[in-house]
Write a structure and sequence with these properties.
Layout (H helix, E strand, L loop, with lengths): L1 H19 L10 E2 L14 E2 L1 H50 L55 E3 L5 E4 L3 E5 L14 E10 L5 E8 L12 E8 L2 E6 L6 E3 L3 E5 L1 E6 L5 E4 L6 E5 L12 E7 L5 E6 L5 E6 L4
Parallel strand pairs: 1-2
Antiparallel strand pairs: 3-4, 5-6, 6-7, 8-9, 9-12, 10-11, 11-14, 12-13, 14-15, 15-16, 16-17
Length: about 325
């Protein structure tokens, strides 16, 4: 009992010491302090007390530092993925070239009775690659996490290194890469078109869509300017009609006005609610230790009050959302 009382006294002393740096007395009515008694004149003040203001400023600086660290980590990670993807594509092309080499074989005929006309060796003809009809995995030289600073290819490759879809209308392409850890679905790829959509502020954004083996567009919606792959059949679709969003190497996306998580297999859509005018999203990293709960974080959206929603896949492959309050 004595230990419990001692602990309570100690906690009270710590709280009192912290509160003393704030202006929490009612006679300072012009200040608004978090330690002010509920309903006091102080709680209605127009100015934030210096200690409260310092705490807010410290929190703001910490967020800037955290965001910068996350941005730099994302740049390094995606640069590594890009290098790995390019290396694997070069290896794939080299292996394909080796398989397609034509070796000429000359046969020396033995002597026979009479003189037989000399046979000319037939020149083997390369067999043209068959036109793809189904179950083709689209490869590009950059991962499925879209970046406007990514490749400038106007075609896709299949697993054998053959060009399966090419168009002068394509500005860049995004598809499977490396060993396809995120299971990019077959028979489709992400395309950024040369065609642009004019925003209400007069600026323009290139149009993005998902295409099939014949180049047919899935959405055919010119307001879509951002698409990237999450995992399996899940894609993120971003639309902005009034202003262009910011992106950082397929790692974070800011100022997107409308964001959907779309499943190309089930055709179901999860719409992220707006925060003021836009949505700020990040390719998730497990800073909440959700994998310990059997969940795989895929996407994190952050609100202006620093609350977070983390979109995760469970063992059944279903997308669920975990909500976290900032505590500020």
């Amino acid at each position: 009992m004595k230990k419990l009382l001692s602990l309570l006294v100690l906690l009270f002393c710590v709280y009192t010491a912290n509160a003393q740096s704030h202006i929490s007395k009612s006679e300072y009515a012009r200040y608004n302090c978090k330690f002010a008694p509920k309903g006091s004149n102080n709680a209605e003040g127009k100015l934030m007390c210096p200690a409260c203001a310092k705490e807010r400023e410290d929190a703001r600086k910490k967020k800037i530092a955290d965001d910068k660290a996350a941005y730099e980590a994302g740049k390094i990670r995606n640069a590594q993925l890009r290098a790995e993807s390019i290396a694997n594509l070069k290896k794939l092309n080299k292996e394909t070239a080796e398989r397609n080499k034509v070796t000429e074989v000359y046969v020396t005929m033995g002597k026979t009775k009479g003189v037989a006309p000399e046979k000319k060796a037939e020149t083997p003809v390369k067999k043209a690659p068959a036109k793809p009809t189904k179950d083709v995995l689209f490869f590009a030289d950059y991962p499925g996490s879209m970046s406007m600073s990514g490749n400038r290819l106007n075609y896709f490759l299949n697993e054998n290194g053959d060009t399966v879809l090419k168009s002068k209308d394509y500005y860049s392409t995004f598809g499977a890469f490396s060993d396809n850890k995120n299971n990019f679905p077959k028979n489709m790829g992400i395309v950024v078109f040369n065609e642009e959509n004019t925003l209400t502020n007069g600026k323009t954004r290139k149009i993005a869509d998902i295409v099939d083996l014949k180049g047919k567009r899935l959405f055919n919606d010119n307001s879509i300017s951002t698409i990237f792959h999450l995992k399996d059949d899940y894609f993120v679709i971003g639309r902005s009609k009034d202003f262009g969003e910011d992106s950082s190497w397929g790692y974070n996306y800011r100022r997107i006005q409308e964001v959907d998580i779309y499943n190309t297999k089930t055709k179901k859509t999860i719409t992220l609610d707006k925060d003021r005018r836009n949505v700020e999203i990040y390719v998730a990293f497990d800073h909440r230790k959700l994998e310990d709960q059997g969940l795989k974080p895929m996407l994190m959206r952050r609100y202006s009050n620093y609350d977070e929603d983390v979109y995760c896949l469970n063992d059944a492959g279903e997308m669920i959302v975990k909500k976290f309050a900032s505590g500020r």
